[in-house]
Each structure stands twice: as C-alpha cells, then as structure tokens.
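Fold it.
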Amino acid sequence: MNRSGGKERKKRFTGWLSQEKRESYMVNVTISLAFLILASLVILIASVIVRTERLQLENMVERSFNDVVFELQQNSYSGYSLSFSQDVVGVGIYDASGRLIQSWGSVYNMLPVSSIASRSTEDGSNTLVSYNTETDVLEYIRFLRQPLALNTISFLSGGPAFSDDSLIMYMSFDGSNYIDRQKAIYFISFFVIIGIMLLYLFVMKLMKQNRDYKNQMVKQSNLVNLGQAARTLTHEIKNPLSAITIQIALLKRQLRDSEYLDEVRLIEGECQRLINLTNRVSDFLRNPEGQPEQIDVAAMINNLIPLFAYPVKVLDTSEKQAYILFDPDRLRSVVENILKNAVESCSGRDPQVEVEVVLGRRGMYHIYVRDRGDGIQGDAEKLFDPFYTTKIHGSGIGLSISRQFLRARGGDIRIYNRSGGGTVVELIVARYSFVQELVVSGTGRTKGRRERN
C-alpha cells in the first residue's frame, strides 16, 4: 500500500516536472541561487577584510609594545626619548597593586587590578584588549610575568625605583582610523548587498515580463491561426446547417403526430446550438466595438435576471443607474454569458449568485458577479483561451469574446476564487461621458443626447 502511494506521488511529481512551468521554475531557482551565492561571497569578503584589519591592528599593537619595552630597557632613566607611533596615545607602567610607577601621555592613575586579573584568568591570557566607544581609544594591558629590569624615576617618591616584582604594562592607541575603516567596510558591504537584491528583483521582473511577452506572442499567433481556420470553418459549416435546418422544418410538419417528433426536435436543438456557435465565432472575428451607444448596464442586468433558473440577487450597495458607452448586443452577450456561467457554476444546488455595480476610481464601473459554486480549478487565465472549457456542453468561446468586447472599449474582465468558496467575475468598463461619445462615435451620433452622471 505504501509502495503504491509512493509510486503515485512520484508519478505526480514527474508529471509536474514535465509541464511547461518546469523550465521557468528551474531558471528562477538557478538565478536565485546565483544571487544568493553572490551575496554570500560579498559577506565573506567583508568578513575577511574586517578580520585582516583586526590582525593588522593586533600586529601594530604588538610591534608598538615590543618597541616600548625595548626602549625602556635600553634607556631606563629617560622614558621621554621613546619614539612613539602616531597611533600611541599613552604608556603606563604599574606595579602589581595597580599603582602607577611611570607614564608617558594619557594614562590612568590607578588600575583595577582585581577586575583585570579575573578577566585575564577567564580568558586564559596575560593580555587584555578593550575598546572605549566614547573616546575611540583602544586599551592594551599586559601582565609581565617576568620582572622587568626597569630603573625608573618614581612619581610618588621622587627618587629612582628598582622593581623586581611583576609589572603591568598599559598602552592606549587611537582607534578612530580602525573604526572608520570598519564602518566603511560595513557600509560598502551593506549597499553592495542592497544593490545585489535590487539587481535580483530587476532581473526577475525582466524575466517575468519577457515570459509574459513570449506567452502573449504565442497567444497572438494562436489567435491569428485560429482566426484563419475559423473563417473557413464557419463559412463551410453554415451552408450545410442551413440545408439541415430546412429539412428539419419539413420533417416536423410531416411527423407532427409521429412518435419520432421528439427525436427530430432533439436534432433541431443540436443544429441550433451549432448555428449559435458559428454566429459567436463570427462575432469573435468581427469588429468587437460594434455600434456603441449610451446604455444603463444596471437596468440591463435587472432585465436579464428573470431569464435564469436560480435567483440572482442585486446588492443594495449596487449603483441604481450605471451608464456606459457600449454596443447593446455585445453588452448583452457579455452580461448574459457571465450570469449564465455563475448560475451554472454548480449542479444540484443554488449557487447564490449576487451582483454589485460599483463606481471606482478614474470613472470606471466595476461589475462584480459572485457565486458560491465549485470555484476555479487550475489556472484562471486559461478560461479566456478560445474553445477551452470545463463544461460538458460548453464551447469555451464565451469568455474570450467577452474579454475582446470589453478590451475594445477600454475595459477588462478578471476571474478569481471567492473567499469561502465560489468565484468572483469582475467586469471593468468605462463610465459614460459626453466627451467619450464625441471621440468614439463622432458629433453626428451624439445629436439629441445628453450626459447622465
């Protein structure tokens, strides 16, 4: 049982990989990994540079410390002859109790030996390095385990002091340059990563636009081929259908009281369905604009509602009047097709269809047709492909024609799943205006009409 389930999952996975989205998915993953590696490389380089700066600082501190110790040993009575580096702020020699023995530059009078010793023990080292963020001073403290042969002049006693005890060496350095370099590294790294992210988003957007453009070109090519084939098919089909329709009418007269009359009516219904299909294909191929005129789409919806088997509710928030400039026959075809799809969105129960007409921004009416049917299965965009349908008796041309009619008038149609189950179809069409009618129809057609707001 588990083995068969595993095979089924593997089969579904293999089938998914074989679909056309596989190439797009692999390209997206590859580009994402490339940019991720690039960002990681930038972070790695930044950390290496910071580490290098740290090592250079430690090397400078150690070198300065050794120079100071060497000069003190060579010239024990004259500490003022020390050749300080420009980064050294001060040097202090302390005894084991933290008392200052001798100093050059800015140092502390006393050192908290107990605190320093505990930190040194925890760290396991005889050297402590700390950074004062307020003064940008790097402090370096080292316990000299071996007594330093140092003959100095004690500031406390005023006379020479010979120390054989363990001493504490304190040195302070100007760390502003080091901190500035660190900040510059972090700053540059941050903006480089931001640049990589922006470049990644730009590349992904460019790829999406390229993919959409490619799909659009494929659809346009398919539509061109479809148009050429449809013109030939509709012309060739209409002539036999006309002859069949005439013969069916004769059969109905002869078989008026015959038991075969129902079969003849069935044939007549199927022929009529083919005739309607050819007419709709012709509408799809003709000029989609038609003859626009001022129409109240809210009134048209109310007139179409009684034609359907299930009730269609118009919400109270809907516009009572909604005038648009549209061809009446084409608008009726669009609205009737959308309402019909909503009513037939499920079988055996009320789809609870509701309609709302809302005036949105930029003078566009949004006509929402909502239902509680079975919802959209798969890609909603495929529903607009000619002759693609999920219905047994559907032709799949209705939504394609509706979109073409709406887009010809500057509108559009959207379909998406409804929260809680069902589907939402949103029709977008421009509000009627006198100026629009002048531009589209010409001054001769607007005579005797007035603008309705």
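The two ends are 67 Å apart (CA to CA).
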